[in-house]
Design goal:
Elements: E1 2-3, E2 17-21, H1 25-36, E3 40-44, H2 48-56, E4 60-62, H3 64-70, E5 73-76, H4 83-91, E6 100-103, H5 107-110, E7 121-127, H6 131-139, E8 146-152, H7 158-168, E9 176-178, H8 181-212, H9 217-226, H10 229-245, H11 251-261, H12 267-281, H13 284-294, H14 298-308, H15 311-324
Bound molecules: NADPH dihydro-nicotinamide-adenine-dinucleotide phosphate.
NADPH dihydro-nicotinamide-adenine-dinucleotide phosphate binds near residues 47, 49, 50 and 127.
Length: about 325
C-alpha cells in the first residue's frame, strides 16, 4: 500500500516531543522538516560541533541521553555501525513504556543488533533520498518517497504514529510505501552489493573493450558518465519510465537499445544477486562488516587503494582534470 498526505494525521503527535539523535545527513534535515511541520523537536548529539550546529539552527540541543529521556519519540539517526552502542548506552535506559523508537534504515533491527523492549513501538521511515534532498524537496513542497514499516506495535497506534512522522518529515507528499524492516534492509543492501557492482562491471567491460580498440580513454570516460548524459537518462526514466524516455533519443538509438537488449542474457547475473542475498539472509555480510569495523576498516582502506590504482579510475581522474580542470 502507498500512503499520501491525506492518509496521515499530524495531530497524533500533539503533546509529544521528538528527540532526533544524531544531527548529520538525515538527522538535521528530518529535524528541520519536523519543526517546520509544527512538531516539537529536541536534538541529541555527542560532540560539540554538531550540537553547536543544532543550536545555531534554533534547536534545544542536548547530550544524547538527556534528549532521549525528553523524547516520547526517539529518532536514531547516527551511522548504523555505531547505533547499537549508542542505543545500549544512552537510549534504552531512557525509553519509557509507550515511547516510539524510529529508524531510517532497517539494518540493526533486521540483524538483531538492536533489541528494543516489548513495551515500545518500533517504526521505520526510510527516505529513498540523501539527507540534503530530504530538506530541499520538503522546502520545495515536493516530498520524497520512503519505505514505512512497523516492527513492533506495543501501543496499537504504531502505524498512525509512523504515518504522522512520515508526514512531518515531508515524505507523504510524494508517497510512502508500506513494507517491513527486512524488505527495506534487503533492497537497500542489494542495491549497494549487487546492483552497483554489476553497473560498475558493465561500465568497466565497455571501457576495456573500447580502449583496447584504440578509442582514447577521455572519449570513453566522457561518454560513460562524466558528460552526465547517463544521469539525465536515469532522471528521465524515473519521471517517464524506461519506454517513456526512449523517444528523447534518436531512432537509431531506440532501435539499437531495444534490439541489442534482446541479445543480452541477464539470467547469469541472477546467480550473483542470489549469492549476495544469501549472504544478507544468513547474516554473513553483517558479521563480516562487524569484523571489519573491529579491524578499523583495514580492508575498506585496501579496497579504496586497489580501485584508486585501477586503469578505470585513473582514466576517470585524468579525464576529469582535462574536462573540468579538476584533480
Ligand atoms: P551521518 O553519518 O550523517 O551521522 C552523523 C551523526 O551521527 C552526527 O550527528 C554524529 O555526531 C553522530 N555520530 C557519529 N558517530 C557517533 C558515535 N559514535 N556516537 C554518537 N553519535 C555519533 O548519518 P546518516 O544521516 O547518513 O545516517 C543516519 C541514518 O539514516 C542511518 O540509519 C542511515 O542508514 C539512514 N539513512 C541515511 C541516508 C543518507 O542519505 N545518508 C539515506 C537514508 C537513510 P558526532 O560526530 O558529533 O558525534
Amino acid at each position: 500500500r502507498v500512503y499520501y498526505d491525506e492518509d496521515a494525521d499530524l495531530s497524533v503527535l500533539d503533546g509529544r516531543t521528538v528527540a532526533v539523535i544524531g544531527y548529520g545527513n538525515q538527522g538535521r534535515s528530518q529535524a528541520l522538516n519536523l519543526r517546520d511541520s509544527g512538531v516539537e523537536v529536541v536534538v541529541g548529539n555527542r560532540s560539540d560541533d554538531y550540537r553547536e550546529r543544532a543550536r545555531e539552527d534554533g534547536f534545544d540541543a542536548l547530550p544524547i541521553d538527556e534528549a532521549a529521556a525528553e523524547g516520547d519519540v526517539v529518532f536514531l539517526l547516527v551511522p548504523d555501525e555505531v547505533a547499537p552502542e549508542v542505543y545500549e548506552g544512552k537510549i534504552e535506559p531512557n525509553l519509557a513504556s509507550g515511547d516510539v523508537l524510529y529508524f531510517s534504515h532497517g539494518y540493526n533491527v533486521t540483524f538483531d543488533r538492536i533489541r528494543p523492549p516489548d513495551d515500545v513501538d518500533v517504526v521505520l521511515v526510510a527516505p529513498r533520498m540523501a539527507g540534503t534532498s530530504v530538506r530541499t524537496l520538503y522546502e520545495a513542497g515536493e516530498g520524497f518517497p520512503s519505505i514505512l514499516a512497523v516492527n513492533q506495535d506495543a501501543t496499537g497506534e504504531a502505524t498512525a504514529t509512523a504515518l504522522a512522522l512520515a508526514k512531518g518529515i515531508g515524505s507523504t507528499a510524494a508517497g510512502v510505501v508500506e513494507g517491513t524492516f527486512d524488505m527495506e534492509t534487503k533492497v537497500d543492501l542489494l542495491s549497494e552489493q549487487a546492483l552497483v557492482p554489476m553497473l560498475m562491471g558493465a561500465m568497466r567491460a565497455k571501457f576495456e573493450v573500447e580502449v583496447a580498440n584504440g578509442i582514447p580513454p577521455e572519449i570513453v570516460m566522457s561518454e560513460l558518465y562524466l558528460s552526465k548524459e547517463l544521469a539525465e537518462i536515469f532522471e528521465l526514466m524515473a519521471e517517464e519510465g524506461f519506454l517513456g524516455q526512449l523517444p528523447y533519443h534518436s531512432t537509431t538509438s531506440q532501435y539499437g537499445q531495444l534490439s541489442r537488449a534482446e541479445e543480452f542474457d541477464h539470467e547469469p547475473l541472477k546467480a550473483f544477486v542470489e549469492e549476495r542475498l544469501r549472504e544478507i539472509d544468513d547474516g554473513s555480510f553483517a558479521r563480516e562488516w562487524s569484523a571489519e569495523r573491529q579491524r578499523d576498516g583495514a580492508t575498506l582502506d585496501r579496497l579504496y587503494e586497489k580501485h584508486r590504482e585501477s586503469e578505470f579510475v585513473r582514466a576517470e581522474q585524468e579525464t576529469m582534470a582535462k574536462l573540468f580542470g579538476r584533480d
